[in-house]
């Protein structure tokens, strides 16, 4: 009989909310244009005010959403702290003031939250009832207790919940104690941090240094709840990385790569290794590294006029000049003369020979009479355009500003115009038989390390395929698709014009934000442009403002770069794994990644089997990262991204998981690194020095360590593809006679989801699903008070069903699992 394999992660999203987020007035970068330059007749050098990175503290997700919607750039390096969220913002001096006006705290060098450094706690412990018997009414549950070491230092990370956590007055406090090994007493009491998000209590947590691994922890609440839990290892005893295999070749990438270099190497690899590699071209060209030539003429007041060329700058727009001319006579109408690319606006004169054309009139005349050279002219920003336009002292040259290379940028012309993105496909069998893995790097332009990390992984595959047994298994068992940069236009802008560019180069801004001083604030955040849990559906963490760094675009999938991803996963339906590689944060994410702020309603949570599979895969991937130089991505930064960090509406992961059943990870490479010399965690950067301190922040070291993780993801996929083994499960304790009510739960031998009934019927995929007690916790506990029969089956992450049961058919075997709990109370 043919075996059943199915994926059941295909959840449809309820249409939860139709309302759109409120639209605050955009307040992005607002540097003053250099009006003196414009009036001197020279090219108006509308330079962007200098930006700097500041550390900030926000009170919580609500403030984060407001600040992001107002156009600020707060995406990366964020972390939850007890009093809210800390992060970094790339801002001008004016924006810093604006942030402060919104209530944001600007942190100094040594300010901000730090986990307790003390290894021995020191507060007085709550009185606890020692060894209180387990009760289903326990008010405290241990969510996780993880031990890890990095660079010679041990750490304990604990999450625990109290059922009274939402209570506001008084707030329930929690204390954590640990033992010092097996059969040693609890002690070292510490206060836990209460984590509240969008008004909802999440859990309490702690991270602290410890010199020896505890065996157990105990958490006590101020209302008397108590729970103990075993300490688990996090990324301890990682198997050696592939790089330690004899003869294994690595360390191919020796510096940052612009998109041209990445794509050209991808094509070269396909030529050099035709038996295992090819290029797939994505169908939608990008909008291009190109801009219209522009000028803001006449200052920024009511008489200013903003002009944009019809042609792209490099296709003739940059040759256009515009001059506002005053003639000596009186009583003259406004008119426009065009000679070649030189436009002369002959300003109207009134009866007393005064200049009499308003900005609005001049703009209209330019649009109508410039012989197609100018297709967009308008007053500056929100000005009414009623000011009388002043003559210029000569012709003003329009420019697309793209030739102003950043200091230190490589020489040479950056190709202009739309780009066809090549996908480097590597696999021995590229016919759909093997699980596909999509590695998508650099959605966000300024994130340079994800691109080098992905390229390094591709190089390792092709160079070691013939000589390394493990690599051969990957290449023969998977079908890998590398998009080495999914935002080539923005990436070039980041390399050559504006290092902090995050979005693509599309300009969707209406006139009020279309002047060239806004040019670093245009573009769509490609990772907010997808269809599931999107800002358009009321989810939080994307902006409707075209000058916001999290601008979601005018509609879902408005951008060619996001359309391409959907095209790819629909064309290659064997793609079952995806990693959206970002920097920097030291985080590994999956679903849920977005919520509706009101009530904190997340996108559907993955079933328990998928959640467990995500955790298992994360452990494997991050162990391999750690194996390189002991960088630990801490468990507080792993899980559903909206659970541990923030909501990002319309991200790619939600769409691929919920629409296509693809295990879709989001990775923030290059996060904090523990520095044993200072005893602190040192934060990462978007563009770290390539050869930095090899033990700290370094583009090179991050590329190598995170490439280890990508290679492990391929092995996860290869194992998944080979997994033909049914899962097994059991009810604990099992069926039988009990003299009093009993607590039961399900256990599985591998990540698997259980469907069950208690009414005697056959279990099907529509039956109740066995769920977590709460998110990030193990499976729920049923308190059985009367005789109950459970019918169930389990499905593993690869779709294998326990005992090869067919839940879709009414076959006569009824080969599901059964157990009866008989309760006979006296
Ligand atoms: Zn990013």
Automatic annotation (TrEMBL):
GO biological process: proteolysis
Domain (Peptidase M14) ranges: 378-714
GO CC annotation, single: extracellular space
Signal sequence segment: 1-29
Cofactor or coenzyme needed: Zn(2+)
Active site residues per record: 668 (proton donor/acceptor)
UniProt GO MF annotations: metallocarboxypeptidase activity; zinc ion binding
InterPro entries the record matches: GH29D-like_dom (IPR059177), Peptidase_M14 (IPR000834)
Keywords tagged on the record: Carboxypeptidase, Hydrolase, Metalloprotease, Protease, Signal, Zinc
Family classification: Belongs to the peptidase M14 family.
Protein name as annotated: Zinc carboxypeptidase
Species for this entry: Micromonospora arborensis
């Amino acid at each position: 009989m043919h075996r059943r394999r199915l994926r059941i992660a295909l959840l449809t999203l309820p249409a939860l909310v139709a309302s759109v987020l409120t639209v605050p007035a955009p307040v992005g970068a607002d540097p003053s244009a250099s009006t003196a330059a414009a009036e001197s007749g020279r090219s108006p050098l509308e330079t962007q005010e200098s930006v700097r990175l500041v550390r900030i503290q926000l009170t919580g997700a609500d403030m984060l959403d407001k600040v992001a919607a107002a156009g600020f750039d707060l995406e990366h390096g964020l972390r939850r702290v007890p009093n809210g969220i800390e992060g970094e913002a790339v801002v001008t001096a004016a924006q810093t003031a604006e942030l402060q006006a919104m209530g944001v705290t600007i942190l100094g060098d040594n300010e901000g939250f730090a986990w307790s450094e003390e290894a021995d706690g020191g507060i007085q412990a709550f009185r606890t009832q020692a060894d209180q018997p387990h009760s289903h009414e326990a008010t405290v549950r241990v969510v996780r207790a993880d031990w890890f070491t990095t660079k010679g230092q041990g750490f304990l990370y604990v999450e625990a919940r109290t059922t009274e956590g939402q209570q506001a007055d008084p707030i329930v406090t929690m204390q954590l104690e640990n033992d010092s090994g097996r059969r040693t007493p609890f002690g070292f009491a510490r206060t836990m941090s209460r984590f509240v998000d969008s008004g909802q209590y999440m859990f309490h947590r702690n991270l602290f240094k410890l010199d020896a691994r505890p065996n157990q922890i105990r958490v006590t609440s101020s209302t008397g709840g108590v729970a103990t839990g075993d300490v688990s290892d996090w990324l301890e005893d990682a198997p050696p990385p592939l790089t330690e295999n004899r003869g294994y070749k690595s360390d191919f990438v020796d510096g940052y790569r612009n998109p041209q270099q990445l794509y050209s190497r991808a094509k070269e690899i396909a030529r050099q290794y035709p038996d295992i590699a090819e290029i797939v071209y994505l169908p939608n060209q990008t909008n291009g590294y190109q801009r219209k030539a522009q000028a803001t003429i006449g200052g920024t007041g009511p008489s200013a006029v903003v002009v944009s060329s019809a042609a792209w700058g490099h296709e003739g727009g940059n040759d256009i000049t515009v001059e506002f001319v005053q003639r000596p006579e009186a009583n003259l109408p406004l008119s426009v003369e065009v000679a070649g690319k030189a436009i002369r606006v002959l300003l109207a004169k009134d009866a007393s020979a005064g200049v009499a054309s308003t900005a609005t009139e001049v703009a209209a005349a330019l649009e109508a009479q410039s012989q197609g050279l100018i297709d967009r002219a308008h007053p500056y920003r929100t000005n009414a355009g009623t000011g009388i336009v002043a003559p210029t002292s000569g012709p003003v040259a329009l420019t697309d500003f793209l030739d102003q290379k950043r200091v230190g940028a490589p020489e040479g012309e950056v190709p202009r115009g739309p780009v066809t993105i090549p996908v480097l496909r590597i696999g021995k069998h590229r016919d759909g038989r093997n699980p596909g893995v999509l590695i998508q790097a650099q959605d966000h332009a300024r994130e340079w390390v994800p691109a080098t990390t992905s390229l390094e992984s591709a190089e390792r595959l092709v160079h070691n395929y013939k000589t390394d047994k493990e690599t051969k298994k990957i290449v023969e068992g998977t079908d890998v698709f590398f998009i080495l940069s999914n935002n080539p236009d923005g990436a070039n802008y980041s390399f050559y014009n504006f290092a902090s560019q995050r979005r693509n180069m599309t300009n969707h801004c209406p006139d009020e934000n279309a002047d060239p001083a806004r040019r670093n604030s245009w573009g769509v955040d490609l990772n907010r442009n997808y269809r599931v849990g999107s800002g358009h559906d009321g989810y939080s963490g994307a902006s409707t403002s075209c000058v916001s760094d999290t601008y979601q675009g005018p509609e879902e999938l408005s951008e060619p770069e996001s359309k391409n991803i959907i095209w790819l996963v629909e064309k290659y339906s064997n793609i079952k794994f995806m990693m959206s590689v970002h920097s920097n944060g030291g985080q590994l994410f999956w679903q849920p990644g977005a919520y509706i702020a009101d009530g904190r309603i997340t996108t559907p949570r993955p079933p328990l089997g998928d959640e467990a599979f995500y955790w298992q895969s994360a452990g494997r991937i991050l162990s391999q990262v750690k194996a390189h130089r002991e960088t630990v991505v801490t468990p507080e930064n792993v899980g559903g991204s909206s659970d541990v960090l923030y909501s990002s509406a319309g991200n790619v992961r939600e769409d691929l998981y919920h629409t296509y059943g693809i295990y879709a990870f989001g990775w923030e490479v290059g996060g904090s690194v523990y520095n044993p010399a200072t005893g602190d965690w040192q934060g990462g950067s978007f563009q770290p020095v390539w050869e930095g301190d090899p033990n700290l922040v370094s583009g090179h070291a991050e590329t190598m360590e995170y490439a280890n993780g990508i290679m492990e993801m391929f092995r996860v996929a290869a194992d998944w593809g080979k997994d033909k083994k049914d899962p097994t499960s059991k009810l604990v304790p099992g069926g039988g006679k009990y003299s009093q009510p009993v607590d039961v739960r399900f256990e599985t031998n591998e990540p698997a989801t259980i469907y069950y009934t208690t009414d005697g019927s056959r279990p099907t995929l529509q039956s109740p699903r066995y769920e977590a007690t709460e998110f990030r916790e193990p499976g729920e506990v049923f308190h059985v008070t009367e005789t109950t029969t459970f019918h169930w089956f389990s499905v593993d992450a690869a779709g294998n069903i326990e005992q090869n049961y067919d839940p879709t058919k009414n076959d006569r075997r009824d080969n599901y699992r059964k157990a009866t709990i008989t309760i006979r109370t006296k």
